[in-house]
Amino acid sequence: MFRQRLHAIVTKWQRLIEIARNPYRPERHYMRGPGPKWRAKHKTQSGVL
């Protein structure tokens, strides 16, 4: 009985640590608009977008 409770507690702690250490943060990869390659490709003849 004690071992089952201990195992459950350890499992929950491991999962919590795994979630906290997850390196993926989607907000760091959010695109904020067209970049320089897009601007170069879509440049008009007058040089203004």
Describe, in short, the structure shown:
The chain contains 2 helices and no strands.
Structural class of the helices, strands and pairings? mainly alpha
What characterizes the major β-sheet? none
- Rg (C-alpha, Å): 25 Å
What is the 3D form? rod-shaped
How large is the count of helical segments? 2
Region (Disordered): 28-49
Biased composition (Basic residues): 38-49
Can you describe what's shown?
This protein has helices spanning 2-20, 36-41. The mean pLDDT is 85. It starts with a helix and ends in an 8-residue tail after the last helix. The chain is built from two helices and no strands. It is an all-alpha fold and 49 residues long.
SSE inventory with pairings:
Blueprint (H helix, E strand, L loop, with lengths): L1 H19 L15 H6 L8
Notable characteristics:
49 residues; rod-shaped; 2 helices; 51% helix; mainly alpha
